[in-house]
């Protein structure tokens, strides 16, 4: 097999470098968030960028043991107690379009809107109105808007937008999702931006492609899954979790 | 990287062979169970061996959607609907020492007993009595005995042992677990052999090492997981599963 | 949480039933392939259907240790030797649109073609020609056609179609993929139906929805992954697999 | 099913709290490493503790695309391109006793040595000498010592111990591994402490149980896996990775 190429890590015999940066120097002075940014962005962050990425990672790490990712990790540890990797992996596998995926979908939506505004020389409000009308016509949901629990306002949204504005990092991504929010209010009804929408707008403004929305959610959530696994391991007995099931299929058959 | 060696499959340009057998010939005349046996045993089974392996695979495939493996697969599909592989993998990851692992542990126990009887020239009853006494002294459970649900008798055990005897395949493995059952009854209390114990004894008699006990459980259970995933996908909505959680940790803190 | 409903398994305290069938009876007389069919189809197969499903499962189980699924399973076992479940799950996770996914994509294509022929009252050849023209215009590949290795003809295709015809099970699915093959030859160039296409056509004729194409590939491949894991475990040392990588990114930087 | 209890996250309708701390406050002012520490330790770290955990996470995040975890993640993405979760999970599944597990094994060793020194009122040197003699007698390797690549000295070890001493956090864990290093040199031959040993000693001194050694390695490595997945997705084609395999099994057989 030919040798793989890679641009990320140079794991030489004496030094490990990440995108050219000496890992020893990073170990002495950088934060884990600096490294996460560098691994996904090709440079280390400014202090303002670091603050925002820290806020996003903290806000996504854990939403309670009843979320599908945490419940799956605990179920796996419950049956397969020797393998914390298996439990964390089971949790990661529940993350997809429906769970943890709204952020990257909203990044796609914002990117499409910004591209359309630029290409067709539209104002953000006009481009946003068209996207909202198209979503209504197609009867698709707008990712980044609405929440089952926070029917009025998710307080994490205010924190994220407040930090972005305070640090001068609210740019076209934040601008465009605000335009979407206005278009939704005028054309449908007031639906608040949710935390997926807020982090999507900010990640666009930090220069990340939309797949990074999903990847950073996974990186953040693994910290929470790891803690759930630690608690399940130290507090609970194996096989404690049984889910009651009711059979509603065909009645018994006489068979061979 | 050096080339990997393998003894299993010769995937040449025109023919795929499994342990020397032409896959085209197998496709025409063999059963999937023949192939599973061949992949794990180096030859195809006799008709009697095939019957027993079919019975073991059928008996292990699915025990209901509330079992940890099935529940984890459904949770994963619920959040990550695009990926049936992720859901099946999440289910597989719950399988470990506590869930689906008793079969291979019981195979280890039987193998240790048979080795000891041979090496120390003991009768099966004497060797079994020593193992039972040691387990009592160490306060460890004997894998393959007892069941949460079937407090008296698991009917699958009778079917498996009946098939083994009818086909002349009940040998030292079945003989030794019967000796263990007698020793348990005399030294502790009557505890029935469970389905893990029955399949362990039979897999020993079929010549499989103990890791195969776990592997065949996974092969069988994946058929059930696949069906659970199909049902979840066709009947249920995304993110339907929320598990109620009660927080019993420290009270709110004033923090930065 | 409300109780889950399920139609598949009734795991009562004394009997396990699958879609109403007594598992004890199945253990005595059915094959594992019968159970797989029942779990995904709501009834047990005829002898002819069983033969075809056996052929499909055997033909998909293992294509050699260099395939992504097998390589990933061996890599996982190499680092995480205590967990056969983790290794098999890692192998399953490589299965997606690009690896093992052509079967279900081809089932979608055939289903779309059959629906169009019916709705627009077209002959199979006309409907197939339109699908081929649309794929050319969109520059998308036709799943189920062509192969990297078997540039002329995959012998498994002849076996599968031969079995289907011999048993009287070659119906509209096989008929439509033949029409597609003719349309490809006339409008592009002769490209043979590959094994994914053959099994797709047959699974359509057996009445399965397209997601089952992917699920049965996973069920089959897990048997092969299990054997690869067994061989890696018994023949190879931990951490034997290292892949040579060449760094082609930015040069060393002076950093903090 | 009874409600699950949890001590970690209180995901109420208006506020998410982690171990009593308001997530909004953490988002404004804490680092992701603070949250990781809090999730696994019940309180937020001091500045010195944060520095050490950052160094450990940075030093473990990525060792190049040829490591089993990264290779498995890239293989999975190569076949299953729609699912970054599946690729990251496949990478996590390679982490076990042999890959990434030496840290927690070394934490167990240090904990056993400290407990023995305390209980039997031995000096660290005497307790370490006994552990080394026992490992020699049992022919087991001492986790945390020696390295395939860095035959003399891994520079990350000096950085980690330097930071621990500079910040006044080198306590009994570091003291005991130094005693082990002396005992190894006197009783076997000079074998340097490796990076797993250094981080094990420091994690013991930070008050973590040994399972956290494995969990933090996973948390760190997921950041690297995520970046490898991003690079594979943006730079490489699907199914690019084929591993050459040589069949060394039985010759072709005439079979049915």
Specify the structural class of chain A: mainly alpha
Number of strands of chain A: 5
Q: Please mark out the parts of chain A with pLDDT under 50 across 5 or more consecutive residues, or reply none.
A: none
Q: Calculate Rg of chain A over CA atoms.
A: 22 Å
Strand order of the biggest β-sheet of chain A: 2-3-4
Oligomeric grouping of the chains: homotetramer
- From the N-terminal CA to the C-terminal CA of chain A, the straight-line distance is 52 Å
What string gives the helices and strands of chain A in order?
A: EEEEHHHHHHHHHHHE
- The share of residues in helices of chain A is 55-70%
Largest interface: A-D, 84 and 84 residues
Let me know the average pLDDT of chain A.
Answer: 92
What is the global morphology of chain A? globular
Enumerate how many helices of chain A there are, as a single number.
11
Structure description:
- 4 copies of one chain form a homotetramer.
- Helix content of chain A is 59%, strand content 5%.
- Chain A contains 11 helices and 5 strands.
- Chain A has a 3-stranded antiparallel sheet with strand order 2-3-4.
- In chain A, helix 6 (102-119) crosses helix 7 (124-138) and helix 6 (102-119) packs across helix 9.
- Chain A is globular.
- Chains in contact: A-B, A-C, A-D, B-C, B-D, C-D.
- The B-D interface holds B 1, 3-11, 17, 19-22, 25-26, 28-30, 42, 44, 80, 82-83, 85-86, 89, 93, 243-253, 255-256 and D 1, 3-11, 17, 19-22, 25-26, 28-30, 42, 44, 80, 82-83, 85-86, 89, 93, 243-253, 255-256.
